Amino acid sequence: MGIYDFNVLKADGEEISLTEYKNKVILIINSATECGFTPQYDALQDLYEKYSKENFIILDFPCNQFGNQAPGTNAEIASFCDTKFGIKFPIFSKIDVNGDNASPLYQYLKSVKGFKGFDAEHPLAALLESMLGRENPNFAKEPDIKWNFTKFLIDRNGNVVERFEPTTDLGVVEDKIRELL
């Protein structure tokens, strides 16, 4: 099993195969429009513009599982991303990333790259750890997605090579993207 074995739904409901992205470096994110990490969209769009000509793409999967921070419809989310951030990379249908209804794609991603911790230098790391620890004292030992804007980096052969938590500096993410390009 690999990344190209999955089909996903575009925001308009059309099903596509991830084979459409073969030979590209892919950054897969779960996003939310009303999150403290939503401003990352600016830097993500910059990365997309900077490297898209080198066969780099970002695939955005909105998710409402963390604090109900993606409450809109697929059309409302796409409109928000376009209007507020000028997002040009693909935004897909809203999905679950954890639990019984988790997208098969995300079940796979988590099985390959589990949670390794938040960047302790990030100002929101302690808050996330405290909040998640109250809900589940064993959260750090489980591979689940912990919050919005978790990212998975996929190489040109479809291998999941890195997982970045939302607290990871996007400069670190860019360095890894450049290595793969």
Automatic annotation (TrEMBL):
The active site is at residue 35. SUPFAM superfamilies: Thioredoxin-like. Transmembrane segments: none annotated. Keywords: Oxidoreductase, Peroxidase. CDD domains: GSH_Peroxidase. The keyword Oxidoreductase applies. The keyword Oxidoreductase applies. GO terms for molecular function: peroxidase activity. GO terms for biological process: cellular response to oxidative stress. Gene3D superfamilies: Glutaredoxin (3.40.30.10). It comes from the Bacteria. InterPro entries: Glutathione_peroxidase (IPR000889), GPX_CS (IPR029760), Thioredoxin-like_sf (IPR036249). Belongs to the glutathione peroxidase family. This is Glutathione peroxidase. It comes from Lachnotalea glycerini. The lineage of its organism: Bacteria, Bacillati, Bacillota, Clostridia, Lachnospirales.
